Amino acid sequence: MQSGCCIRGLWILNNQDFVIFSRKFPVVERRWRVACEKESDDNFKYHLLPYDSELASAFADRKKREGSARGFGIRVSQSVKGSDSWVDDPITRHVISLHINKEEKGENHLLWPLILHIKGPYSILVLPLVEPHHLKSYSRMCNRSDCGSAIGADENLSSLLLDLPSITGAFIVAHTIGEIILGEAVEPEVVAASSPSVGGLLDSLTGSIGISGISARPKPVAAPVAASTASGTAVSGAVMSDAPKMGSRPLDKDVLRSFISSAMPFGTPLDLSYSNISAIKTTGFSSADMPPADRKQPAWKPYLYRGKQRILFTIHDTVHAAMYDRDEIPDCITISGQVNCRAELEGLPDVSFPLTGLDTARVQSLTFHPCAQVPEHGGDKQAITFSPPLGNFVLMHYQALCSVGPPIKGFYQLSMVSENEGAFLFKLSLMEGYKTPITIEFCAVTMPFPRRRVVSFDGTPSIGTVSNTDHSVEWKIITNTRSASGKSIEATFPGTVRFAPWQAQRMPSFGSAIGSVADEDSDLETESSSSMVNVEDQIMEKMSKDLQAVDLEDPFCWQAYNYAKVSFKMIGPSLSGMSIDPKSVSIFPAVKATVEISTQVTSGDYILWNTLGKCPVAATPEA
Amino acid sequence: MAGKLLSPTEWESVIDDYNLGGAANLHRWTGGASVVDLCISSLLRKDFPVQLKLNLLTFLEHDSLDDSPLPSSSLSRLIDALRSVIQSPSDPFALKDQFLISTTAIFITSLLDNDELISGSPLRDLVELFLTIINRPNHGLDRHTRGVACECLRQLELAFPCLLSEITPHLWSLCQSERTHVSQWYVLLLSTTILNVVKLKPSGTSISSMSNATIPLIPFSVPQFLIDGVGSDFVWKEKEICYKELRRVVAFLLECPQYLTPFGLVEFMVAIIPVAEELELQASLMRVQFSWLLYTFEPLLCHIFLGIYFKFLDSFQGQELEVASRIMLLSKEPQHHLVFRLLGLHWILGFFALIVALKLDLLAYCSSLICNPGDASGLKGVEADKGVYQVTLFKDGLVSVSAFKWLPPWSTETAVAFRAFHKFLIGGSPHADASSSSVGTLIESDIFTPYSLKIITFLLPFEMLDCLFHWARWMRKLKFVQLDMVANEFVCTAPDAILYGLVGRCVASEKMLVDSTSESKGLVPVIVACIDRLLGCHKHHWLGEHLLVTLDKHLLPELKKDYSLGSYFPIFERISENDKVSPSGLLELLMRFTIFLVEKHGPDTGLKSWHHGSKILGICRTMLIHRRSSSLFTGLSKLLASTSLHFPDLEVRDNARFYLRMLICVPGKKLKHILNKGGNLPGISPSTHSGAFFNLQFPRALSDPKRSGSIASYIHIERVMPLLVKQSWSLSLPNFGINPDKPGFFEGIRDNESPSDETDTDITMSGNIISESEMLHQQKEPLRVMDAKISEIWYTETNTSANVFDEVDKLPAIYAIVLKFTSSAPYGPISSFPIPFLLGSPPKNDKHVTQSDSLAIVPVDNGHAEEENFKAPVCIELEPREPMPGLVDVFIESNAENGQIIRGQLHSISVGIEDMFLRAILPDDLAEDDVPSYYVDLFNALWEACESSSSTGRETFVLKGGKGVSAISGTRSVKLLEVPLTSLVQAVERHLAPFVVCIIGEQLVDMVKARGVIKDILWKDFSSDSSFDVTCSPTSSKGPLYLKYLGDEDEGGVQIPTSKKNIGYFQILIFLPPRFHLLFQMELRDYSTLVRIRTDHWPCLAYVDDYLEALFLN
Question: What ipTM is given for this predicted complex?
């Protein structure tokens, strides 16, 4: 680790490939220049950072060469030597290189590594400082003449990336900037359960309140109380930032500029906490902000809380599932979760509680906020001690297996009876084996058809209501907690869905990328004459001819008919077993503070694969 | 100083201009004044908005990058401005902070380029200013500005190492006292200063003690050694006390990380790790202090941890697995953005690559534990199981891959799967590995690779697959990465794999591939691409070949023999090229495919049969080019023979026959040469014939020469005498390189393509065809043997459609036309031909002239006088160096009416073998009456000479003019023509009359004499020449060319039916320039004729065969 994370420059381009913001850091650039001059030879010398116009045209060139802004990522037949996809590694969709043409000087040089982060309409490019030998090495990699690197032995990207924390750091910078320019710098959600005396219908409406980040508040110290009362009637589950959305309006350069000059004044990022920085910018410090007498105030906690003391935890399970309903493929269900926290505590106290709820056998990973001190792993019982920052924060992430059966079981079958019509059947069983106090608050099933336009659907479910949009059919099974409290529910939904006539799509550029497209003699009679017995197969075959290749990072969009997605929210204890006993939470130095804990379970990617269709599957090692 | 002050809006434009294109754009704004000075004066104005001032500061920073370093005076002014802003109570902190930062940045860039300035007052003043600011620990209001000042000082210290070394004690005490959140900045400043002290070890006097400051903080003076020049005489004086104090400082600093932000921690680590190393701190201390980093969910901190881990590997002993599994989990955690998970995968790969080199023993131990949890008996067990285990793992991986096999071949999934496959395959022999490229040597060389590598390779997949596959079930997007990982892991296992038989495993994997290929023909292009990629690599060529062998062995028998087989031809193509794969399997498959095509042939499948047939022939051709013919001979000749006999499509049949003949007659080397010549030139002439042979995708190639069609569709060049052989095989191809000026397309006139463009069918089809002159043989001078000339007459005609010119009524004309000819066939230079002018023809309504019309020798309806102007006769004289057909490319250059120069290429002209036919040259002193008998004698002499057994066959003859000697080496051939007698005679009369030297047989003589076309020859009856017999051939039948054309021999062929009775003989003598001869002896019967052919130029047999067929069979 020769150097930390330094940024030579960053650029933001809009979707017309025009640079709308750029920032260069002369001090870092100076360091790069010195390093280059030390190692310069015939093939390598220092080049000035590109001007905005040069960078924009280089970016556009790359886009043209690589098919898209991100590029192919892997070596395909269009890949040319010297390009990123020649390196044949998916990460080149994120760490890109540009060939800068300095027209007046007739130079063409390689700019690498540029971190590419696409956010909304913007492409954010960040250029971290590396050492000249890294650049040379990459240049060799993308110009190698053989068939591609064998990892582990040849000169490869992995060891470069391991050697360069600045790339990792630059990604974080890029992501933070992305959030800022889209106004999405939101603190994690913490839900506080209100007093249990309020019951009935009101309970679900006012049952929880949202408290959002301090960024919007004029004075962070006094704010929490006011904020929580003001937003007391916020509808649960819809807790979002109350900061204005900036997505629709043009990029606020001044906000960005001021963030950059505070976060990384010389190109070396020191603190990327947008909420802290904007609080300091807007409010500054008063004489009332006294430093603590005995301890050092952490850099991530520029202000101390004053007011009524309490501490809130929200345990949030997200259930991911792949339900295949096939004998040969086992269903798969996992839970990822996090514990969010908001500590309204005066001074700089330490908080600790034991992690007893998590069954170590089921927990796959457990990671913590940097403010936490975690004993070394190994023991069954762990206690976590942390010194909470101000505002909402994620205390820990975990991944675990589900402690009970899947909340929604069953199958989904869709079969195309003709080119434009499909018959489907759902048979679901909700909350089977679940007991109170676990109840399901809402549950809906969506059949997405990203590539077809839905004209109409037909059929009545045994429970709930159905509606459709252009590209999906949604079945709302449960909309009301009361109707489903504490018992299992069987739900079926047979029906048909009709699509607008199939239109052959033009082959996308990426599609034609791989191999010379399709069979050259695509005479359909060939297939009809062969032993294609299944009509559906035939239809599918015909349609899949026109299917586009998916983006490398687009998870489910590849086949138009093959899955339904379940979304739900449950109330009650977590499925992962994660829990915090309010009595066991201890604060040092001891203060009187209420401890509130809430739990919510929502669905993540909860997928029902079409039993009659095809589905991706990964083999499980028989360990 | 500044000429004028810029307004805020002007500044905005300046900054925009600058960002877009750099300093070059600024001059018009500044008018030459110093940008810095302009900025400073604007910065000090009270009426400018703060936001603009901030922009100006950033702009100044950017400008310092490519501007020349600022002079000392500018820097001084900058500091003065800075001071006034800092001290101003009204300016907001944001501006003050930015001003501090920008000034520092500008100083650093300027001073580094100008060493002399370091000692100057600006730097000292700046540092003093910063020190004043930071020297108020815990001060409330401006705490953030203090932090910024610390950072500025730190950057100065980084740029000028040891600048602050003499005041380190002050920094430490400041650091200790600061308790607000900006303590991070004090800590970083201190740690950077310490780092430089420790690293550069300035002379001991400057920092005698950390705890007791000997010099005051302010006034600051730049250390003397910096002024003298960095690095000149740094001598570290060993001082125990210094070390002790330093340890105390470091111990203090090591308590800080919990208070730092993640990025602050990065900077801190960069400074503290070298210090810890230098001070030889206990490494376990590092472990205790920093292990927690691994368990945070900040990817950056994990990365930093890895940095420490590798620095202090010893102290982390035993944690390898923990670390590895943690990083692996990082890539599984869904809360991270995809890119961090990808990074995690890369780290782990890099991690293991490093660890292999470092911690082999431990890993070996661990792997044994993992492999046999109950039985840690050691490495032996591991070794034994490994082979089996890997196969299972790999199978699992492939199952996942093959789950995608039904996806379209262009899908991302397929691409990724094949990438993984490729990585797996090449894993065993990375390119960096210097060992040789063959499997055998690979095995040998790798047996001795360190045991280490094998262990790690084993360890990895186990751990990873487990995690990766579980996790990726539903997260398809990352599955690819995993597959990639799996492949990568197998890469590592490859040395083992070789021990256990890489080839065997490959086969296992390839089997899988074969399965999916046979199920989904769509994968073919992808597989081919994969194979090509391997074949293209010098190192992994053998793998590609191996794959081909596997496909050959396993795929071919699986394939269904129906039309779907067409999709697999790209694979066949690769197999047929590769000498390592035996051709027999493929040939057999093609044979069966041919049979299928023949059987399936019907009225609807004509095009398909032709299409597939051509493809099959394409494969045959590839085989002919790339393989030794001996290996092919049996199979290929069988395939070609049956194709030429049974295939429904005429063209395919013809071509097959042709290939067959080539295979049989032409020696291998020459054959390859011939075929290669065609193969390397993709730009096939627009003529229909050569395409089928030389361009494998010829249905497309036909429509290709659009570009040459533009002028060629208006001006046609026609043979007066159409060639007999329409589909003549020609080795000569349009050679675009010959013509130095730009050939091939139409430059002068940009015209619209004529709507009725018939480029893809027949070049001679469109328009009115005029050919009405008789053929002339212009023998300019007596032909000499080495300098033969023949000539032909051609016509050009114009058919300039109205859309070339505006006026429809007026016939367009072109002037001063020069036709130039080139040919790649072995003809001598062809002189160009001038035509004074040509008139366009009026547009015709009926453009559909049937082929028979266009080919008619004397068109009936085209004799009108006014059309004479639309055409002009062109005569091309050829000087063949070898008698072979060819193409003559025609280029036209002309003036249009409006003076435009028209330049372009016309359709090429085919020259057939019959254009080479000349009568034999007569000696000068021969009397006219003796000519017939001279010819007969010559015929007989040559006939005998061309028999290989003949004694004259080995004689040499002095060539005329004494230019050398020549030996006749003759070849014989036969051709059975099943045509009725009369039509044969007619054809001979029409086309071969000048060359007939003798007619034998009363019946025939009577017949021919009566017709009166053939004259002045020798007439004989059978009795006049005892060597002729009614039933026997004139030559002995003992030779290899004996042909049993009497099909019913079994029934006792003694009796000869009258229809098979020999009617007579034609003897035909043809001279082929420059010095060869072609002899026919035609044995005529009522319904068939046997032609015995002899020649002293064997290659011409190939064309003669076609010629005879065209002559008599059409």
Answer: 0.85
pLDDT of residue A153: 56
Q: How far is A442 from chain B (nearest CA, A)?
A: 23
Calculate the CA dihedral of residues A386, A390, A393, A396 and round it to 10 degrees.
Answer: 0
- DSSP-assigned beta bridge partners for residue A316: A338, A600
Question: How much is the average pLDDT of A293-308?
Answer: 86
Q: Looking at residue B847, what is its pLDDT?
A: 37
- Is B308 in contact with B273 (CB distance < 8 Å)? yes
Neighbouring CB atoms inside 10 A of B182's CB total 27
Residue B1074 to residues A84, B878, B911, B965, Cα–Cα distance (Å): 59, 11, 16, 14
> H-helix or E-strand containing A427?
strand A421-430
Task: With CB atoms and an 8 Å threshold, state whether B427 touches A152.
Answer: yes
CB contact under 8 A, A165 and B183: no
Q: Is B1022 on the interface with A (CB under 8 A)?
A: no
Question: What confidence category does residue B417 fall into, taking pLDDT thresholds of 50, 70 and 90?
Answer: low
Mutate to test the interface with A, among B152, B292, B346 (most CBs of A within 10 A): B346
Query: Which range (B116-130, B215-229, B1099-1113) has the least confidence?
Result: B215-229
Q: Which long-range contacts (CB under 8 A, 24 or more apart) does A525-532 make?
A: A526/B562, A526/B563, A526/B564, A526/B566, A527/B564, A529/B562, A529/B563, A530/B560, A530/B562, A530/B563, A530/B564
Residues A309-330 have a mean pLDDT of: 86
Q: Give percent of chain A with pLDDT exceeding 90.
A: 23
| Cβ contact B751:B804 at 8 Å | yes
pLDDT at B361 (0 to 100): 38
Give the total residue count for chain A: 623
Q: What is the mean pLDDT of residues B438-451?
A: 32
Give a three-class secondary structure readout of A298-364.
Answer: CCCCCCCECCCCEEEEEEEEEEEEEECCCCCCCCEEEEEEEEEEEEECECCCEEEEEECCCCCCCEE
Query: What does the pLDDT look like over A322-334, one tens digit per residue?
Result: 888 888 777 878 8
Contact B1004, B1063 (CB under 8 A): yes
Residue of B nearest to A394 (CA): B297
One-letter identity of residue B842: P
State yes or no: pLDDT of B1084 exceeds 60: yes
Is-contact A314 A189, C-beta < 8 A?
Answer: yes
Cα–Cα–Cα angle for B1054, B1060, B1065, rounded to 5 degrees: 115
Work out the average pLDDT over B636-655. Answer: 83
Mutation target for A interface from B19, B176, B263, B335: give the one with most A CBs within 10 A: B263
Q: Are B54 and B94 in contact (CB under 8 A)?
A: yes
Q: Among A614, A455, A454, which Cα is nearest to A534's? A: A614
Q: Does A338 touch chain B (CB under 8 A)?
A: yes
> pLDDT confidence of B313, banded at 50, 70, 90?
confident
Per the CB < 8 Å rule, is A30 touching B112?
yes
Q: What is the DSSP letter of B296?
A: B
- For the full predicted model, state whether its pTM sits above 0.80: no
- Under a CB-based contact definition with an 8 Å cutoff, are residues B966 and B943 in contact? no
**B966: closest CA among B883, B1077, B880, B879?**
B1077
Residues whose CB is less than 8 angstroms from the CB of residue B285 and which lie 6 or more positions away in sequence, other chains included: B254, B276
- Nearest residue to A129 via CA among A15, A285, A7, A255: A7
| Under 8 Å between Cβ of A520 and B381 | no
The pairing of beta strand B901-911 with beta strand B886-896: antiparallel
Q: Which residues of chain B are within 8 Å of residue A32 when distances are taken between CB atoms?
A: none
What pLDDT does B915 receive?
Answer: 80
Angle between helices B35-43 and B50-66 (to 10 degrees): 160
Cβ of A175 within 8 Å of Cβ of B337? The answer is yes
Token duo for residue B367: 């792997």
pLDDT band, very low/low/confident/very high, at A438 (cuts 50, 70, 90): confident
